[in-house]
Input
Amino acid sequence: MPKWIFAFIQFVPLSLFATYAFWSGTPDESRWEMAFKLASLAAIIQLAIIVPQRRPTNRLILAANLYLLLGGLAFLTHQWWFLKLYNSLQEAAIFILMLAVGIVATLTSAAGYIGAQGSPRRASLVLLFATALALMFALAFRGDRYLAAVYPIIGLGILQRVLLHRANKTLSGGA
Output
């Protein structure tokens, strides 16, 4: 798969979720439900495309898709307790999942949290620290979707790309 297509489709489910949920202002319960259902379907399709690829799956995208899948599944199976938890956590829920995926990837995968085979653990630890910081921002600015979610997610995405680029450069023998 060409790199540009791979890069383009990575944030489609999360973008679909945010666009549908917030297009007409603050969403009501039915809008949340439809946003989660649509985005979880998009996440399934995306994962079916990117997981079989030879390169490691972007851990941030994996966590975002997990967030969407869990929300969609909770609506489909009427797990109101889980939806109440998501509601109380608000934007922090996605960062908790990112942190969980990051910890598991760092401890169990040669590609680590940044997703580069054989990368130094330090790079994954930097991204884990930044994810913890993003979680604190999400809790501090709860309810402000830009400060609590959009900007931290963009920041993590940029940091992950920089760390991945540096790791690949180091692994290929570049300075």
